[in-house]
Design brief:
Blueprint: E1 4-11, H1 16-27, E2 32-38, E3 43-48, H2 55-64, E4 68-69, E5 72-77, H3 84-95, E6 100-106, E7 111-116, H4 123-127
Length: 128
Amino acid sequence: MTTTRLDLPIGGMSCAACASRIEKGLQSLPGVEEAQVNFATEKATLHYDPSVVTLEQICKKVEDLGYQVIREKVTIPIGGMHCASCAANVERALRRVQGVIEAQVNFGTETATVEYFPTQVEITTLRQ
């Protein structure tokens, strides 16, 4: 099994019991090898198998428990695309970047809309 580390910013915790609840919930997901939630830093650190569980499933679990996953969304101009196949290639490349939750590239408007974890990836990396 190939595991990936994820530092997930979490909002809405009010005590150590909240952190424990999130930790247990994340550990119950198939593909999550380890989950540690730190109330003081408002962060969950996970080791998971991305072929078994997706970032969206992880986020949904936290939100189903009543907490928020801190994420950002940005629209980036993309120049130089010549066809829909180019847009699809850019979209696949963005989705492979660690920390990207979702990416959609629009050939017509020459933009990419990317939802990501700011603790995992910087906008400058996405623009590259």
